[in-house]
Amino acid sequence: MFPVNSYIEHPRNFSGNSYILSASIVSQLAYSDTKGRILLVKSQSENTQIPLYISPTIKNFNPQVNQIYMFEVKVDSEGKLIMTDFRKL
Fold it and tell me: Over its length of 89 residues, how does the chain's per-residue pLDDT go in tens digits?
């Protein structure tokens, strides 16, 4: 599982790693057809909110507020959390 609180303190320490994150959708912070979207999600395990980037190449993802998902995520070299796959719970 994704160590949310440790990630918040030192996001770049997790660069290059992949995790599973169980989280609910809080809100959509940004959206662009060509650049993707940024969601604010709330971790189920640590009750903490973090931003999550979703690429426009991810298909069939229609996030609903309060819906819980199991996200496959990776942390890029800048420490950004990026969704690579999802499953609705």
Answer: 899 999 999 999 999 999 999 999 999 999 999 999 999 999 999 989 999 999 999 989 999 999 999 999 999 999 999 999 999 99
pTM of the model: 0.93
> C-alpha distances in angstroms, 58 versus 22, 36, 84?
18, 9, 8
Per-position b or e across 46-62, b if 16+ CB within 10 A of its CB: beebbebbbeeeeeeee
Contact status, residue 39 vs residue 55, Cβ threshold 8 Å: no
Joined together, the tokens standing for residue 61 give: 């993802």
